[in-house]
Every structure is written in structure tokens, then in C-alpha cells.
Amino acid sequence: MPNKTDIFWERNIETKKVPNDEVNFDIIIVGGGPAGSATACYAANEGFKVLLLEKEEFPRDKVCGDAVGGKALKHLEELNMLKSLEKSPHFIFDSVIFSNTKEEKVKVEIKDSEATGYVYPRINFDWIIFNEAKNRVEKNGGFVIQKFRVNNLIIDNEDNNRIIGVKGKNGANEKEFYAPITIGAGGVNCPVAKTIISEINGEEFIKKEHWSTSFREYWKGVDGVDYEKGAIEFHYVDGVIPGYFWIFPVGDNTCNVGLGITLKDFKNKEMKLKELQKYIIDEKFASRFKNAKLVKDSGKAWQLPLGSPRKDKVKLRRMFGNGCLLVGDSGSLVDPFTGEGIGNALLSAKIAVKHFKENRNNFNLECGENYQKEIWEILGKELTNSFKIQNYTRKKWLINWFIGKAQRKPELQKILSESLTSKEAQRQLTSPWILFKNLVF
To answer: Can you give the residue ranges of the Digeranylgeranylglycerophospholipid reductase catalytic domain (predicted)?
Structure first.
């Protein structure tokens, strides 16, 4: 974690006085993480009066792998936030290391300089984005409320279950607010998502093959790491496959260390996540952690709804209701292979505001379906390929064979490198013929 000197993201974020009940807004956004804060910024930039609601109070931590890829950085630059973020400590990754159960390794360089990624501790990353959203929202006449827990959506049952506002508590005070559209950005347990998916549409909220579970710790002094710029690491280890173990430097002699696996696959494991992580560190990576020190109370588990394709018409889990849209993790947009979700969260924020701007006078179910279709048109190939790669990693022999070959074969290294930034290269990586040709010949 960063040095404890002049850390502005540990300050409280002061907001305007909480408005009275029944105030009307153009947009209500539930959740102040990257997806919700970016939505608020895009909406305020369009001149909309925004109400941004966050259940916690900043500063606050968020359990995550902390990696922020090139896609996210491009959106942050578009929102004029990247320079502010670059002023806070972070790690720059320009390559990725993959290893298999035989401890064979391949290092993949990220060739596209624009796609170079960062690793940020979420405590400062989220603070900066939320603070910027607060400034833009309030400047445009809107409000930001922290420690506000949404308990219910206000639904007009006579108008095809149209969502017209929210009810919730700020401390002991119950309040309700109204808007033509409500954006669910509350993450994995977003109350807006649960309402439109399960309560209104009667669909299953958690499908284990489309969810992952993860565990993260911070460790100081891990050997073999450059803490300013270099590689992030994915390791396929016996006991975790079809999941993976990661080591992501975050700067200040500290690494984000964790593991991720789908809920469907995890149910067959004998150990709990924390035990599994300890086993990996003690038995598989003991030499690299012999001088390392665990940061106290940094071990935490969380779940992620994956953007793996479904077999229904809208391909992804439902992302809309009548008068309502879901963005980011609430919309189940996490990459099935890497677990990275911030880039897709920021993209969905931008598209959500665009669709509302085009249909602000009557944002109905058809508008919401068009939003989800556009999301799929943009992300469909990428998420489908990522899902295929995730399925390949279920086969230990294939992982070992592929990484072993990639060690010695420049053609495979090139495909791996380009796959980190190119949809066409991802397609090659998931083509059985191309894989067969490169692996066998």
C-alpha cells in the first residue's frame, strides 16, 4: 500500500446537505463505485440533475484484484480523470506472466502502448473517482449522499412495473426520491439488480457457472517483483485449477495476492478460500514468500457476476427494467477469464447515459433492451472468447501443454501478446484449428 504521508484519499469527502423527501431528479444512481461514479460524471456532463447514493462513507476499501486495464484508462482519460489518478501511487504493468502446474513460465509483452495497464489499491482509486463525481454532480445542481442504504424501489404497478424512484435510510432518517430513470451500480449485491431480476422478472439471481468467488490479501516484500513497472502474474496451480492464483504489485513494496475460481468449480474443493490461499503460498510459492509479511486484516473474500454468455435472447444476464438500467458488476459485466471489470463498468456507464439522453421522456422496456443489445454488440465477441478461454483452463493437460509450447514458440507468444488487446487475436486464441496447428506442428 502507498506510504502514509499526505494521503489525500484517507480524508472524508464532504457533500452538500441531504435534500428533503420527494425531490425530483433526472437520474438516480445507486452505488458510488467506479461504475456509479462514472455514470454520474457522464450524466452531469450532459447537464442532467443527478442523485448519487452510496451505502458506505469515503474513504472506504473495496476488495478487488486492483488491476485496471487499458480499456478503463481510455475511458478515464475521456472523463479527464487520468491525470488525477496518475498523481496517486500505482504500479504500471507492461507484461503478463503465465505459469503452469509444471512451473513452466511464459512472459507476454503488451505491445500496444495505449493498452498498458495500472494496478491501483481500490481505496485510493475509488476515492478519486467518487470525489470527482461529487464535484461534477453538485456543480450541476445535483446531490451526493453517503451512508444511504436503498431498501426498496418505488414501483408504479399500473404502468407495467415502471421504476420511478427509491426509498432508503440515511442514518435514522427514511427518505424517498424520484427520477425518470434509476441506474443500478451497487455491485454484486445491488438492490436494484435484485429487484428487476428476481422480484419483477422472477429470474434466478445467482447461476454458479456464471459467478466467481475470489480471495485477496496484501503482502509486503514478495521476492521476484519489480514494484514500479513490470509484469502482473497469473499462475495455474494444482488445487486451484480451473481457477488461478495471482500476484499483482501495487507499489510501495506491496503486492495484491489472491485466487479466483467459479462458484460451480469451487463447490468441489475441499478447502475454503483462505485455506487454499495459504496452501498455495506455503507449498507452491514458499521461496518467494519466505521474507514476505502479510498486511494485517487484508485477507477478504468476495464474489463476482461474470459476463459469460447465456443461451437466452439478450445473451447476458438481464441489465434493464422499465425505467431502469444496470451498469458494471450490477450488470454482470466482469470478464470471465481475467476477472477484470472496471473497463466494462466504465463503458456501460457511458452507454447507459447515451441511451437515457436519447429516450429521456419515456425510458421504457424497449429502450432498456436496446441498451443491452448495444452492450452485447460491443462486448459480445470479447466476452465469448474470454468464456472459451476460461473453459480451456479447466483442462490441466491443455494449460501445461500450451504454456510449455509458448515458452519455446514465438508464434504462440505473439498470439498471447496480441490477445491482451485485440479481439481478432482473442478469436485466434480460441480457434481449435489455430491452436492445434501451433501446438502440434
So the answer is: 225-294
d(CA 386, CA 232): 18
Domain boundary among 304, 321, 346: 304
CB 266 within 8 A of CB 206: no
Radius of gyration of the chain (CA): 22
In sequence order, what are the residues at sequence separation of 6 or more whose Cβ sits closer than 8 angstroms to the Cβ of residue 310? 210, 316, 317
Nearest to 218 by CA among 76, 320, 120, 352: 120
Strands 148-156 and 300-305: unpaired
Cα(380)–Cα(386) distance, integer angstroms: 10
CATH of the domain at 162: 3.50.50.60
Q: Check residue 438 and give its pLDDT.
A: 46
Cβ neighbors of 156 (< 8 A, separation 6 or more) are: 162, 163, 164
d(CA 395, CA 418): 23
Q: Are residues 33 and 106 in the same domain?
A: no
Amino acid identity for residue 366 in this structure: E
Looking at residue 44, its pLDDT comes to 96
Query: Rounded CA gap, 356 and 25, in Å?
Result: 13
Q: State the sign of the Cα–Cα–Cα–Cα dihedral 42, 67, 314, 212.
A: negative
User: What DSSP element (H or E) covers 360?
Assistant: none
278/324 Cα distance (integer angstroms): 42
* pLDDT, tens digit (0-9, with 9 covering 90-100), for 320-353: 999 999 999 999 999 888 888 899 999 999 999 9
Which parts of the chain register pLDDT below 50? 1-5, 421-422, 424-426, 429-430, 432-441
Q: For the chain, how many structural domains are there in total?
A: 3
Boundaries of domain holding 35: 8-79+122-205+307-386
* Whether residue 216 is found in the same domain as residue 298: yes
**Within this chain, do residues 67 and 96 fall inside the same structural domain, yes or no?**
no
